[in-house]
Structure prediction request, 175 residues.
Amino acid sequence: MRADLSPVIAATARWLTRAYPSCGGALASALCEAQARQAVTVAAWLRYPTVMDAALVGMAGPGGSAGLDRICGSDADGTGADGTDAWRSWVDEVVASWAACLLADPGLAALAVARLDGGDHTTGVPVEFRRLLTPDTRDREAAALLRHPDLLAHVADLHGPRLRDLLGPGQALIA
Prediction:
């Protein structure tokens, strides 16, 4: 049985790519989104490690982007008149913070992906996180803002200590 975290993953990745947009055209945008989505997927699977955890967040909802929007200076309140901002209610602040940590620190990302091995989300399913773990030059150029440790710090610092504790005491962001 697989749990569906796709609404949380899609919304949180969208939030990250809007807060830290790509540098370039359509290809750069797609590469930036792929990196954000991979980081958010790893973070979501760590945050909700079991099928039951994922089902509960699916029922209760993750909390929305309001806190992140305030931190990043966005005036979005998730109440667009035409419903276009409804996706913001599926943003998970902890997942966004953990994804920011993973994007800023390749070593931490490698630990996080290794931690997923054998979990509910990866059992029997081949998973690959190449763009997160070993981005090439084009990936790095496309996601220059999304991977910049200084720019990500205010989001990463929100819940980064919990992620580092989960992955092993003493894990620190590498600048």
